[in-house]
């Protein structure tokens, strides 16, 4: 399963990962986790990637 959290901000905030992390811990492991927002692409050590909304077509 792939988790996608969509945010309207162009500035990344660490709170963006909160929902994805909670889902992974309490519901089901995720094969991939993405935050879609208006900023730059970022990759985190916990496997979550922040992706600009312009690049979302490459996720599927």
Notes on the protein architecture:
With 60 residues, the protein is α/β, with parallel strands linked by helices. It has one domain. The protein contains 1 helix and 4 strands, in the order βαβββ. The chain has one helix spanning 18-26, and strands at residues 2-6, 32-37, 42-43, 48-52. Strands 1-2-4-3 form a 4-stranded mixed beta sheet, with no helix packed on it. Strand 3 and strand 4 form a beta hairpin.
Strands, helices and their partners?
Elements: E1 2-6, H1 18-26, E2 32-37, E3 42-43, E4 48-52
Parallel strand pairs: 1-2, 2-4
Antiparallel strand pairs: 3-4
- Report the total helices: 1
| Structural class determined from secondary elements | alpha/beta
What is the overall silhouette? globular
Biggest sheet details: 4 strands, mixed
What is the string of helix and strand elements?
A: EHEEE
Distance between the termini: 12 Å
Percent in strands: 25-35%
List keywords for this structure.
alpha/beta; four-stranded mixed sheet; about 15% helix; about 60 residues; 4 strands
Summary, kept brief:
By secondary structure, the protein is α/β, with parallel strands linked by helices. Helices cover 15% and strands 30% of the residues.
């Amino acid at each position: 399963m792939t988790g996608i959290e969509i945010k309207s901000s162009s500035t990344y905030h660490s709170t963006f990962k909160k929902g994805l992390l909670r889902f992974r811990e309490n519901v089901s492991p995720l094969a991939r986790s993405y935050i879609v927002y208006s900023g730059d692409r970022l990759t985190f050590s916990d496997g979550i990637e922040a992706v600009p909304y312009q690049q979302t077509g490459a996720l599927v």
